[in-house]
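hi! just following up on the protien thing from before. the input was this:
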Amino acid sequence: MPNNEPTHAQAQLQLQLYDLRREAKLRQAREWFFQSYFADSLEESNHLTPVGSQENAYLRMLVSYWEQACALLNYGLLHEDLFFETTGEFYGVWDRLRKVVPAMREQFRYPSMLAQMEKAAQRYEEWTNKRAPGHLERMGQFREQMRAAATKR
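and the predicted 3d structure came back as:
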């Protein structure tokens, strides 16, 4: 039976990802995204993140960070259980983008845009539903509360 414990190298890489997540500009991008990015269509997304705006830069920074982290996971360089147990933020990003991604893929003629995050999110859903049934639904309710609070500002 293979050892399912994280290797030292996997743990080190995960800690490096965490350290990168603490970079000041990425922290600002994360804060903006979770407070302000609520889009159900490409048009809404473009309105929230006009080309050349700080918000557009924030979105690109955050999405590229998580796409890269998920690629490391999907290629087996990160330990899946360790990643999922300690890194749910990527799923929150994917959850907010999932309605917009198909149109983005079409607009940019890039069918695999954010495919790494999508693939990791699908596995995370299965993983979470086995360990904490109802958690993802509750997080969806929380997201909608955050959306309602953001529209009041």
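Residues 54-74 form the longest helix (21 residues).
Residues 21-152 form one domain.
cheers
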